[in-house]
Amino acid sequence: MNITIRPATSDDAGEIISIYAPYIRDTCITFETEVPTIMEFAARMENIINSYPYLICEANGCTAGYAYASKFHARAAYRYSAEASVYVSPEYHGKGIGKALYTRLLELLKEQGIYTVYAGVTLPNEKSVSLHKALGFTEVGIYHNAGYKLGKWLDVMWLEKPLRDYDDPCTA
Length: 172
Known about the structure:
- By secondary structure, this protein is an alpha+beta fold.
- It is built from 4 helices and 7 strands.
- The protein has helices at residues 13-26, 38-49, 97-111, 126-134, and strands at residues 3-7, 54-59, 62-71, 81-88, 116-123, 138-149, 152-162.
């Protein structure tokens, strides 16, 4: 399988929604409950792309997955941290797409000056937990009953990964 990872643009919104929509409609993996329009999603992407990497993976010319980082929290002291997400089309699960996307995303975040990356995983989701741990994320804790979707209360595991030594970012 020939894969290419490239920066996403808002023009990719339709392809990305085709991957994301089933997660919204049919799973608890995302807490989003309504599929956004292509226009809404493209605007979200533009907001993120202005500050963080947003990547798309093509496998043999087809969109197989995407990953992006976003602001961890709004306060200024959090500016050296980011939150990361990855979604892979089900037909490409287990083929290394998520790992390839995340590996490149983490490289770009380190180059950007991010010190720590966080990820939230709705439980149960052993595939996602395994992927994050294989990439060096460690569990921080679990938010219990953090969301309600598809008729059940859901826990979210938070994981973190340091990308660099914790020196003074103003002198680094």
